[in-house]
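INTERNAL AUDIT FORM
Audit reference: QA-55
Scope: verify that the stored structure record matches its stored sequence.
Auditor: D.O.
Record contents follow.
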Amino acid sequence: MKYPEIVEKLTLEQKAKFVSGYDYWHLESDETLGLPQIMVTDGPNGLRKQNPDGDGVGLGNSYPATAFPNSATLSCSWDPELIEREGKALGEECLKERVSVLLGPGTNIKRAPTCGRNFEYFSEDPLLSGKCAAAWIKGIQSMGVGASLKHFACNSQEAFRMVIDEVVDERALRELYLTAFEIAVKEGKPWTIMNCYNKVNGVYGSEQVHLQQEIARGEWGFDGLFITDWGASVDRVPGLKAGTDLEMPSSGSYNEKKILAAVASGELPIDVLDAAVDNVIALIEKSKPQLELVHDFDQPAHHALAQEVAEQSMQLLKNDDNILPLKKGAKVAIIGEMAKFPRYQGAGSSVVNPFQIDNAYWELGKRGLPFTYAKGYDKKKDVVDDALVAEAVQQAKEADVAVVFAGRIATTI
């Protein structure tokens, strides 16, 4: 144990509380023992700190932050140094908002094209994903802010994610699905690892002895804290036995009562509970130094970094007839509403409320480049508007080249 002198001062009831969140985003605290309340919040592609007058999840009500390119884009940079710089910038924004752990990076190998979390996972390649994750972790943790490597493991689809069983043989597990996590743990040394909703070979992520205790702790040397994804705790007592230290968010007194009863009956050894409490205390202690300071950051510099990351992550896959770069003086038609209102991120828990968003329409105008524009479609409607299409076709016919801005048209939540 790292802090036995603190653990032994807690009552059994306090211990049962400490292994669950205080509320949706905060951990338990005890000022008399020098344990301040710390906050964890969503990432990984920007800080998504809930505005306190919003709901528990606060998906559309977060403080403004820099919107960095999604991890699916960032991995295309193949540049650990650049990724580490982004991590440092994210750390600076967390410090300004007094956030102690940013919930990222995401590293699962993408298998299902419709997986709703694909955009926030680094890569299809285990080595690349692991190196990217390690760099991201090093960057943010160099600022005294913790990372939460997620979602451990095999979270490769969203359909039925709360109950699906990912059946993977041991060789494939080791060579494909765990490699990125192994690299990230050994090289990045994350403060926390977040387990997944799904089952892996019949066992839920929050109850995985094999993944958490035998592999991550036993083989890779992970000595941080295991945290559940929000609502991923299925049965808290087996979860504690499997090494899941912290349940998020708070389950109120429900699981506290189960833990107390399990200790009283002998089902849950007290040393198992103490070890989990000790890991929670260690996370709080790591966070304390930065909470005692006032922080700020250079917002324009962070936006410039986000632009640099986007530029360095773009990949030209083919260039038929050498159409790029566009010829100087060419008459250009810009087609598509997303030239004005780009779809720059996915949806859900990683949605960032950006300080600033650039778009092609404004940028071309600022540079004085001549072009025509046609909306082409209504990005809020999944129907074809014949009048908008006709206008776009006419603009394209009259131009030397048409640049089409298209993408998923559903609105961001």
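Auditor finding: record pair retrieved intact. The mean pLDDT is 94.
Action required: none
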